[in-house]
Amino acid sequence: TIAAIVLAIGILFFNYYKKQTPTHSEKPSIRLGISADNPPFTFVKDGAFVGFEIDLAHALSSRMNHTLDILDLDFGGLIPAVKNDIIDLAIAGFNITEERKKNIAFSDNYYTGETGVISNQAFSSPAELAHTKIGVQHGSVWEAEAKKIAATYEGIEVIGFHRINQIVQELEQKTINAILIDTPVARQITQSHPKFIVSTLASLNEEQGMGVIFK
Asked: DSSP string covering 7-27, please?
């Protein structure tokens, strides 16, 4: 009958609309990019992403009443991923610099760090890094800092890697002499590599504050 047909069509539209419309229990998601090799800020423990930045991201998403979809990428790929809308934002120890501000937006500073050096010996000044091989993470502010040091002192070779654990392996194998990195990260690494020594240097880079990045 016509009534039955109308009822069937109504049920079809209701089911379609139900599929397309989120229920009150569903929350919108934030696509978050991280580089999970940066303890104590972001790292993997027992198969889960943990660290200060992960706690910060969960606190922010909770206040916004959103869920988090987390994507772990190489550090150097995070800014392109934000710019190309693959992710909504990234939190990965990004130092706020004027150069980066030309391409990306930053939140307020959530942490201000120091220049740390991991090595098999102590360093008291950048000058003592002369005639060494320095390992850094590609795209990091420490890569730029190491290049400034190399331009100032003789015989320094700056070698970039995608992941921090790769740099640590190179230092263990003595193919590099030092790692330039945030001091808290350096201290975290030495907990599992007690033979390494952490030194803190006067920074050549005045822009050390970290921020969340957005398009």
From this structure: HHHHHHHHHHHHHHS--TT--
Q: What count of other Cβ atoms lies within 10 Å of the Cβ of residue 94?
A: 23
CA distance 86 to 109: 24
| pLDDT tens digits, 4-55 | 444 444 444 444 444 444 444 488 999 999 999 888 999 999 999 999 999 9
The encoded tokens of residue 193 equal 């590599």
Q: What is the dihedral of CA 64, 93, 47, 171, to 10 degrees?
A: 180
Tokens of 203: 């920074």
Question: Which strand (E) or helix (H) includes residue 31?
Answer: strand 29-34
With tokens 């790929």, the residue in question is 77
Report d(CA 93, CA 42) in Å as an integer.
9
* Paired tokens of 78: 């995070």
pTM: 0.68
How far apart are alpha carbons 38 and 185 in whole angstroms?
A: 6
What's the angle, vertex CA 134, arms to CA 36 and CA 51, rounded to 5?
Answer: 20
Residue-wise DSSP of 118-175 = EESS--SSGGGGTT-EEEEETTSHHHHHHHHHHHHSTT-EEEEESSHHHHHHHHHTTS
